[in-house]
Amino acid sequence: MSALPSDPVVSDTTATSDALRESAGRERREKLVRFLTDWQGVTGLLLVVIFFASAIFAPWIAPYDPNAMDIPARMSGPTWAHIAGTDQLGRDTFSRILHGGRVALYIAAIGVSASLSIGLVLGMIAGYGPRWLDNLLLLAFDAVRSFPAVILALATVALTGPSLTVVLAIVILTTIPSYGRVARTATLALRHTEFILAERSLGASTGRILFQHVMPNVIGPLLILAAMEVPVVVSIEAGLSFLGIGVLPPQASWGTILNEGYLVIRDAPWMVIAGGIPLILTTLGFTFLGEALRDIFDPRMGRGR
Amino acid sequence: MTLTNTTRRTFLTSAAALGAAGFFPGGVGMLRAQEGRVLNLRLDGDNSILDPGYMVGGTEIEAQKQCLPFLAEYVRDGDTFSWQPTAYVTRLEYVDDTHIEFELAPGLVWSGGHGTLKASDVAYSYARMKDSEWSGYFDALETVEVTGELTGTLVLNKPFAPFIMVTLCHGPGAIVCEAATEAAGGRFTTEFPAICGPYTYSATPGQRAVFEKNPEWTGPAPGFDRVVCHVITEVQAAELAYEAGEIDCTELGPDSLARYSKEMPENTAITTAGQLQYMWMGMNTQHPKLQDIKVRQAIQHAVDVDSILAGAFAGTSAKSHGIVCPGLLGARSDHGYTYDPAKARELMAESGVTGLELTLRTLNWQERLLTAQIIQANLAAIGITVNILPMESGPFWEMGMEEAGDTWQDLELWIMRFATVPDPYEATQWFISGQVGIWNWERWTDEEFDSLYDEGLSETDTAAREAIYVRMQEIMDATGAYVWINHEPETYAHKTSIEVVAAPSGELNYHRFKPV
Q1: Helix (H, G, I), strand (E, B), or coil: what is residue B81?
Q2: CA dist A186 to A114, A159, A222, B497, Å?
Q3: Which among A90, A248, A263 has the least Cβ separation from residue B236?
Q4: Exposed, middle or buried by CB within 10 Å (0-12, 13-18, 19+), for B102?
Q5: For the segment B209-231, what is each residue's pLDDT rounded down to a tens digit?
Q6: What is the complex's ipTM, to 2 decimals?
Q7: Cellular location of this protein (chain B) (predicted)?
Q8: Are the beta carbons of B281 and B415 closer than 8 angstroms?
Q9: 0.90 cut: is pTM over it?
Q10: Contact B376/A89, CB-based, under 8 Å?
Q11: Contacts of B407 in chain A (CB under 8 A)
């Protein structure tokens, strides 16, 4: 078959392709408009941007070194010099909150991406592999999910001592099953679709099928899930640090600020307030953003509007 | 099973009766009396070893005082403490410098059918203590001669006047039941093999220890029918519980003590037991990183203790100059090094050590963590990186003990606090050569220190005795293994409706609490 410009078949194909492209572009614009008109989505995005920006630029925007002590000024209330007051060692609480955000961001970024990657691979293997492997992986997912994160953390810390690495390991281990289960379900749905069967009949390897054909179709819901898991991960870190089994002194984290503030809540209530606000706003931000994205990309799972 | 049928009418009748009782002064009194029979207190952790020979101390001594016999007990005399015979004895007195005679009260019964309290139990208890982890308390004791079923003589190997105050009044002076202890294998942990005291003991780990009136006790009745000690690890959480009315008495942390001193909560009084605690940062002299004394001395000069007192203790505790607490014989007003970062840097340069990284272990308590962070900042200023390792009390108290594992080999720096009794001898006993690997975690030995320790036991001249304890602390300074921190007061906030009785080292004696 020749491919002349006047060829009606080619002309039809081009027209169809243009129409599809235009349709896709229209759909993207509609989704963007839907997102921008969703106040929760915009608020979430704004809070997430603030979270990222404050964490990334903390060394430049924090007014003081977060670990610099000024003992004569210990437990001072909020002033223009220290807008969130000072702690027991006279350290600037606002600067510690900004630097605490870096710990949260570090845990969220590494923890979520690692657990998403591992969960994705294990989920695809479970959904595409033999039945016995599926059952084994499901059992492993359920076993991990049924074990409370705090108990797991306490047991681990008893063996290794507290550290940020332990927190990260706990976060990754306890959130893998969420991604794994979603990836498995999506892979199972794709397993018998025509394009996968066609690839298999053409002799494509399992790896190629999984990573070139299944993964692009599975990753979308996982990314939405990841957005909603970020506040969970941040809360796990804050919770473990609050219990004294997270980051080590003098590193600031929102959990340690809350812990130190809780212990002097009657003498310096601003510490608990200042430590709690970023945790609440970050949780709200990621939750709003995740829900808005889910509504747009997966309306069946949405809030039923 | 008994079923109670509560009808609407009976419920309303009961509620009306209770309400009416509340309106009358007598009714209120009756309700308060009911309330007053239960005393709610705080435990800072589970009691893990109740055996006086192998205990950690603290609240374990409190439990022993309720359930085991003692020959003597502390009695407060204004700002000082002296001793008096307990209800377990009808006589306890020095007949000469080295002989203390006692006579037990008749008819005091051990639980579990183990018969009555006998002089042989005293002899058995103190003989086993001489071979225990707390043997230092019994160095001055030669033997216990049993002269009758209820009578005996404590024979000292040298004149040692503080023996009753130091040993018999304190936890190691507890008497155990020979028959029951032997039946339990010679040692015990979380349960008393037999009790003979005003209260029985039961505990739910992580939750509470409960002391109920002992039905077999024929001695003086305790002030409260039941004492419930709730496990609340953090002192600040205990303060919140106190302010919420959940407990009747709690130890106060430094910040709260400062706040209470300014503005006392309603119906609250403060009782200070004493300042018989000494805190320091220890260094393992045998650890490869700390073997060079210049490094240890640099650390001594680098730590700003005044900042620790202000930052971690809100200025509520006295600066320490050694293990002998203020007010005791041998207490010093200065020590052998000063806060001098320039000198510290000089010593580090002389040592040739660079890039030193050390681990500082501490209990996971707020004041300790704040102290650790100040030390961390101070040592960073002379080029030493300190990693803080917060620990739970169980592993913390075992980490320097050779018997408990290999952690002692990795020990570098730690923050430690011991409680003591009103005589300097007690504090020095933990640092003699025989205590290396037990409580001498700094792991140094010194012949002069050991011989001075023995001399201190038998010296009767006050000035000479004082000189001994001052010299012993100078030797400790010179090891470079200590940074003296403070002497915390043991301060309790309690309801004005109860009278609190505490040992000078802070242990509460529940059965001597009284409703006021």
Answers
A1: strand
A2: 19, 38, 10, 67
A3: A263
A4: buried
A5: 999 999 999 999 999 999 999 99
A6: 0.77
A7: Periplasm
A8: yes
A9: no
A10: no
A11: none
